[in-house]
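SAMPLE LOG
Freezer: B-3
Tube label: C17
Construct: single chain, 302 aa
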Amino acid sequence: MPNHSRVTRRLGLKAALAAAVTAPLSSTALSASSASAGERPARRRLQAMSFNLRFASTTEPNSWAVRRPVMRELLRQEAPHVIGTQEGVFSQLLDIDSDLGPHYDWVGTGRLHGSSDESMAIFYDSRRVRPTAYDHFWLSDTPNTIGSNTWGAAFARMVTWVRFRDLADGGREFYVLNTHFDHVSQYARERSASLIAQRIAGFDRALPVVVTGDFNVAAHKNTVYDTLLGAGLVDTWDSAPERSALYATFHGYKPLTPNGDRIDWILSTPGVTAHRAAINTFSDGGQFPSDHLPVQAFLSLG
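STRUCTURE (predicted):
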C-alpha cells in the first residue's frame, strides 16, 4: 500500500483528493473547434518538465539567493502542469512553491525521509491535475526501507511517483515517476533502471506513465538508457516531431555545449504522444537558475 507520509506545503492532501473532479476546467480549455476530428487541441497538451534545481546553497557565485529570481521567472514563464524536480531541499522547495503561486502544490520527501535532505519533489498545477495516489521507494535491494542504499551509490537514491487525474482531459489518469540516479556508481544506476522498469510494470497498465529524472548518463550512450527503453519506455526527445536546439543538459555554469549529452530525460510509455520537446536555455544577465538546463515535453496522454 502507498505510504502517505510526505513533506509538503500543505497537509491537506485528503481534502485535495476529495475535491478532485472529472469536469473540465473551462469550455475554452476543452474547445476542439480549432482541431480536426479526433485530434486534441494544443492547449490541452500536458506540459511536463524535468529540472535538476541544484540544491540551495549560500556559496557564491550562483547561490540560491541569486538564482531564485531567475528560477521564478523561468517557471512562471513556462507554467508547466507537472514538474519533476531533483536536488531540492525543503526550504528551497518552499520558495519555489511560493513563487509558483497558490494554484501549485507538491509531493515529496527527503532521501532520508526528513526535511533537511534532497527530495524528488513533483510540483503540479492543481487547476490542471489532481493527485489520486502517491508513494516513494528507494533505489536499493530494500526499496521500501527509507534511506536504504545497498548498491554502492554515493548517496541514498529514491523515486517519488504520483498518480494524477487530468482535469482537462475528461478525468484521464496517468502516472508521473521522478528520480535522480547516482552520479558515481554505474552498477547502482543499472540496478536502479531495472528496479524502475519492474515497478512501472506493476502499475495499472491501462494508464500512461511519464518518467522524469536526472539519470547522470548520456542518452543513447549507456546501458541504463538501453534498459529503460528496453522495458518499453520511449524517449520523448526522440519521438517528438518538433524539437528545440540540442544542448548538454548539465552545464555547471559554464558556456553551453551545443549538441552535448542529454543526461536529463522525459520518458513515457508508448501510448503517450510527444508533440514537442525542448531544452530550455533561459538565463537572466548571464545567470542561470541551475547548473542543469530544464527539459520539457508537450504531451497528449493517449
